[in-house]
Amino acid sequence: MVNGHAIANIIYPTSGNPVNLQNDAESKYARESEPSIHIKNGTVVRVVDFAPSLDSPIHRVVSLDYGIVIEGELEITLDSDESRIMRPGDVSVQRATMNKWRNCSKEKSAPAVFVLLDCEPFSVDGVEVKENIGDLAGEYKEH
């Protein structure tokens, strides 16, 4: 843990879908890039280790996300105030939702795996849904 925050480790990014495996193109991209929170037309897999009692900023990424809790208990809360406690092996599927995460433990970190897949732009009630990463903006490069 770094000063009571989360540590995000990028496991593997891809620059497109379908993935280009010809001539090792995707491996080169993975080695040489520092992806943003998500990758336009691509994917990113990261492990986030949440510090004890950490309450993340609320944020939205315009992507389809799979979150898998590895250890500990994490609470996910949506902007509708709906929340769920997730335990090891539990999977969340987020469809560009405003959400935040909280580590329920005061003593132990809680790692989770997140797989983010870019999605087509879309609207709700005629209003285009936009990315809003709020206080996380300083943690990720622009995309």
UniProtKB/TrEMBL annotation:
Coiled-coil boundaries: none
Gene3D superfamilies named among the record's database cross-references: Jelly Rolls
Protein name, UniProt field: Cupin 2 conserved barrel domain-containing protein
